[in-house]
């Protein structure tokens, strides 16, 4: 009697777990989720490798290679900016190997392909960051397949092995090209260039807020241009400004934030023996940007 009851008790949860398991399995396929998850960093890098695109899109590749998108985990002057976050504060880990994807809410925008990787990959990345292994971290980027796949879709999920562009090209080498509804829309960039706080994480983060400024200040004042219109003329993938190139940055800012100065010098003489040199300086800064500057 006692034995059979304890068997029954054990059987109950097992059946329940099986049912939940089958349900999740079916649900994952019903939503068209790709079950493929890279289980090593090398595999993730290979899955999102942009070098195969270079052969035919050489100019775009070279522009991209120089852009901040090609080094999204490096701050100014090649510094791995995640290191202090893994050492102190709510995202810190005792040892790199203990890290999971939960340690990297920043990757929502700085390395969104981590969604296609297991926690072991997050641990490998954390170890490389803590060892200041720049050559490994340099291999992680916002490459062609990040923007031209998952970030080019509005409803549903991007199809595996499809590149999204401005038009359908069924016979494109290697991957079919399908028309994206988003490629020329500011929302494409806004997905990462931020509206505000990201409260969905256990440790909420706020980084870029520029898209909020574009939507709520530039557009209501009559602004008509898109991010791509200003930052990607002729599909230029360099997307300046580059904060590591000081001279180029200063020249751009002189042009985009013109400063007008008017001065009037005179002498003020309130009483006969007192002379005060005076100056009136009128300044006007006009912003030609589609959002607040600086932002970040
Ligand atoms: C063998 C050469 C070749 C390779 C390799 C190649 N492409 Fe292309 N791709 C082309 C050509 C040619 C076109 C233009 C076709 C046209 O305009 O009809 C094109 C078009 C495109 C377009 C669409 C352009 C538009 O008008 O919107 C995108 C996006 C694109 N390629 C991305 C990529 C990416 C990303 C890779 C790497 C994964 C890649 N291509 C690899 C030759 C190639
Ligand atoms: C940060 C996002 C982003 C990245 C990274 C990116 N692209 Fe693009 N790409 C775009 C957008 C947006 C457009 C559409 C621009 C437009 O039509 O104004 C575009 C357009 C293109 C086009 C069409 C060009 C044309 O003449 O109309 C090709 C080809 C292309 N990309 C290839 C690539 C390749 C190859 C890479 C990697 C080396 C790459 N892209 C990386 C966002 C990106
Ligand atoms: C997948 C997320 C993502 C998408 C999509 C994206 N960006 Fe970025 N972008 C970033 C990140 C992250 C950086 C900062 C990288 C760094 O320097 O560490 C960046 C940097 C930049 C910069 C350099 C200036 C700076 O502050 O670092 C410009 C300009 C820029 N992006 C414009 C665009 C435009 C225009 C689009 C749309 C065509 C776009 N981005 C799409 C994530 C993205
Ligand atoms: C009307 C043109 C225009 C539009 C529209 C525009 N930008 Fe800019 N953006 C500029 C100018 C000008 C600068 C100043 C620096 C420069 O010239 O490179 C700038 C600077 C930036 C920077 C550097 C921010 C900083 O703190 O200095 C980023 C990132 C950026 N833009 C992204 C975007 C994104 C994303 C969008 C769309 C949501 C967008 N821009 C729309 C013109 C524009
Ligand atoms: C909502 C998307 C998003 C999230 C989440 C996010 N970032 Fe960013 N971050 C960006 C974008 C886009 C830029 C570049 C544009 C800008 O500066 O306006 C940027 C720029 C930066 C820069 C400046 C890069 C440089 O080249 O100097 C640093 C540092 C940074 N982020 C750190 C972090 C850290 C650390 C976290 C997590 C705690 C984080 N970000 C989370 C989108 C994000």
Total beta strand runs? 4
Ligand identities: heme C
* Whole-angstrom Rg: 26 Å
**Global morphology:** globular
Protein described:
It is a single chain. It is built from 13 helices and four strands. With 296 residues, the chain is of the alpha+beta class. Among the domains are: 109 residues, no CATH class; 36 residues, no CATH class. The strands form two sheets. A two-stranded parallel sheet has the order 1-2. It starts with a helix and ends in an 11-residue tail after the last strand. The chain binds heme C (5 copies).
In short:
With 296 residues, the protein is an alpha+beta fold. Among the domains are: 34-142, no CATH class; 148-183, no CATH class.
How do the strands and helices of this protein lay out in sequence?
Layout: H1 2-30, H2 41-47, H3 51-54, H4 58-66, H5 83-87, H6 107-110, H7 119-130, H8 134-137, H9 144-147, E1 162-165, E2 176-179, H10 186-193, H11 210-218, H12 227-231, H13 246-256, E3 259-268, E4 276-285
Parallel strand pairs: 1-2
Antiparallel strand pairs: 3-4
The protein binds heme C (5 copies).
One heme C is lined by residues 52-53, 55-57, 144, 148, 163, 165-167, 169, 172-175, 177.
